[in-house]
Amino acid sequence: MNMLELRTQKGLSRVGNLSIPTGERFGWVSISKPRATAFQSGSLVGYVVMFTDSASVAGDWGQLEDEASRSVDPEEFTRIRRWDVTPFLHSDLQSDTCDEEEGSTGEISAFLDTVYDLSARGKEDYAIDVIFEFMNNLLVEGQFEACDRILSEVAIARIPPVLMVSFLTITAAAKPKLKNRHRFFSIIRRLVARQRGEKAAQRLLDGLE
Amino acid sequence: MDLSRIKTSERDVPFVAVGICDTGQNIHTGVVYRDHETVRFLEQGFHELTRNEPVQNSIHQHSGRFLFDLEEDRARNIAGMCRLIAKWLVDKRVSGFAYALRFDEDARFDPFTGELAMANGVGLSCSTFVIVVFRSSRVRFIDFEDWPVRAGDVIAQERLVKLLENWRDQGRASPEHVEKVRSEIGCVRARPEEVAGICMLDLPGKYPAAERAGEAILAAVNDLG
Predict the structure, then answer these.
(1) Which of A99, A118, A138 finishes a domain?
(2) Looking at the structure, do residues A28 and A90 belong to the same domain, yes or no?
(3) What is the number of domains present in chain A?
């Protein structure tokens, strides 16, 4: 897998010509924890995942030449296809390309951080899309160990039940190949039963064991 | 049976619903789901014709109703599954899934392959498409045990095969596929209105409750004109 990592050498207040929406407004993103990662995964051309104090971006990359300088509605971010990472290649950025194995620790960490970030900002439906697409790509590629690692590493306390259901839904067909899934399910079942009661837990998780 | 679950505006669909409409030629069903700011109608139109249009561009051309009742957290994930299926269709640049009459109990959108897996079937009808979307989300939507083949089912199946023959004559379906579907006439059939009617019942929907619910749905669609 080709992974492009972009890191700032010094403080950065603007990223190329791309207007990145912040939590409240359009404008240049102020990146205090600069990090942008693009990678190719499965049938997707790739994601751009940025982690900043105020914005998290998950989209595909590849083209968008004409639209690279336009402002983008925050709600569009997971719908944009073939994102051109060129705008991120600002003079303040140092880029290096490296090969990283699919389902690598860095990729999984970036994926989970994106899920936590979207969840913390109340964008659970976008987080569902990220979970489904990322896990689906791993399954299509036969990366069962990576899937299993995610199920053991996901911080359940940082995600709401709706996203717990997402992990269980997309991994259900691979149950025999994922040794951590049963434990993951048991933890979630206990947690939801404690929060919502036994009957609600049974209704919520029916068919997902 | 809870008739309060019938809605007529997409604004009343928080995450996912089963849509039902009278196209003027037949009763049709599909999944109404929220694609973030847009509410879409994901449907098996006919042979290799799976559509994913905004509701206002599709179901409202006909008399439409939406029905839903699911645990919210499950409903949101079914909507996510719809978005994933729609994305597969776009990514793979396919116009849709093959049409068939018989339901494959093992059919689902397979996360291993990113394809529609049908171990024992050759395609989907509008009704079985809805069932497969729910099944792919691990929701026990329907139970076909004790579900009879009714005289009206065979008549409807013969009419659908006739329509498929027209498509064959237009080069839109292969002769081999038409013959496979023809051999399915007489199989168990969940009617579109019954699939929608199941949303008013406790899941999984069973016969004869689904049939009674389907009759109530037809009456509701007729009332809408």
Answers:
(1) A99
(2) yes
(3) 2
Given this model, what pLDDT does residue A94 score? 35
Q: Under 8 Å CB-to-CB from A74, ≥6 apart: which residues? A: A21
Answer positive or negative: Cα dihedral of B97, B100, B101, B106.
negative
Partner-chain contact A169 B77, CB within 8 Å: yes
Spatial contact of A132 and B81, defined as CB atoms under 8 Å apart: yes
User: In the structure encoding, which two tokens stand for residue B65, read together?
Assistant: 């109703």
Residue B173 burial (CB count, 10 A): 21
3-class secondary structure, B160:
helix
CA–CA–CA angle B164, B170, B172 (5° rounding): 60
Kindly report, residue by residue over A136-195, the tens digit of the pLDDT. 888 888 899 999 999 999 999 999 999 999 999 999 989 999 999 999 999 999 999 999
Q: What residue of B is the nearest CA neighbor of A136? A: B111
**Cα separation, B188 vs B82, whole angstroms:** 26
* Structural tokens at position B142: 């329907």
Is the CB of B87 less than 8 angstroms away from the CB of A126? Answer: no
CB B111 within 8 A of CB A136: yes
A128:B77 CB<8 A? yes
CA distance B218 to chain A (A): 29
On whether any CB of chain A is under 8 Å from the CB of B34, the answer is yes
Domain carrying residue A47: 2-99
Contact A156, A112 (CB under 8 A): no
If you average pLDDT over residues A6-29, what whole number do you get?
28
| ipTM score for this prediction | 0.90
Three-state secondary-structure class, residue B115? strand
The answer to whether residues A95 and A121 belong to one domain is no
Q: Looking at residue A86, what is its pLDDT? A: 37
Same domain, A76 and A115: no
**CA gap A97, A68 in Å, rounded:** 21
Host domain of residue B76: 3-224
